[in-house]
Amino acid sequence: MNPSSTSIRSRRFLLALSLGVLAACSDSGSDKPAPAAANAPPGGSTLEAAKAAGKIRIGYANEAPFAYMDSKEAKVTGESVEIARVVLERMGIGEVEGVLTEFGSLIPGLQAKRFDIIAAGMYVTPERCQQVAFSDPTYGVGQSFLVKQGNPKNLHSYEDVVKNPDARLGVVVGAIEAEYASKSNVPPGQVVVFPDAVSALSGVQAGRADAYAATALTVNDLMGKTSAGSDLEKAEPFKDPVIDGKDVRGYGAYAFRADDKAFAEAFNAELAKFVGTEEHQKLVAPFGFTPQELPKGVTAAQLCAGQ
């Protein structure tokens, strides 16, 4: 559970009212390269430039609890963002600027240097590993469906969608759930693609989709922070998809440009000292993360290799 246009930002602004999130203009991004990268001396690295500038841009997709705009604090927050702030501070980079980007445009935006890190809880997959350099994961989590109250079409797995030709499954553009649907043999005609989680939630409410597939944490957060509780629910029980003979559990991490591997390695070294500590657990608890979501030694190298 990946370059924003004026229409996307406008729609996000309107829909965010129900979630209490407001994408401030300073965090809505631009098509300009990240300042740190742009100011790098000839032959200098992104990390050196970021340290010299004291700040860096991160790309995020406004998906709680991983990365989203907190209207009360007027800043980007979430599990991925707050961990990044701690790690980057320890690396000598004190300021983080968010660039709001549709999930499916995060990797292209990173490659185009609109920002220097993707901090959006992005799953590490072998396909994405061919495009970007990942840190080790900060969490591992299973899947879930958001459905209407009573789950009228009795959808508790991707297989249930396949069995019911009238069922429509909502996914976010570029998110891993579209791949899960495809590999679970959900017909393309039964898949409805939304630009973001807020749109997907509204789509289920309006009947454009019968279920929205996302991480269990995303569904929990949507249910806890919106007014959707009166007409939507989390599909329970739920069976995670089996892909290529393996039970699916997604692992989220930070992504860097392929030519910024030195930056990724330096970030990863500090990340390893932090994830799993009491300080880390206290930091992410408000976003719904518990010890059950710890990556438990799983590495990016293993995930990139398809293990």
Automatic annotation (TrEMBL):
Entries under Pfam families matching the protein: SBP_bac_3
Residue ranges of domain Solute-binding protein family 3/N-terminal in the record: 55-291
GO BP annotations listed: ectoine transmembrane transport
Region forming the signal peptide: 1-23
Protein encoded by which gene: argT_1
Any one GO molecular function term: ectoine binding
Organism: Achromobacter veterisilvae
Coiled coil regions, renumbered to chain: none
Entries under PROSITE patterns matching the protein: TAT (PS51318)
Name recorded for this polypeptide: Lysine/arginine/ornithine-binding periplasmic protein
Xref: InterPro entries: Ectoine_EhuB, Solute-binding_3/MltF_N, TAT_signal
Gene3D superfamilies, alphabetized: Periplasmic binding protein-like II
Domain of life: Bacteria
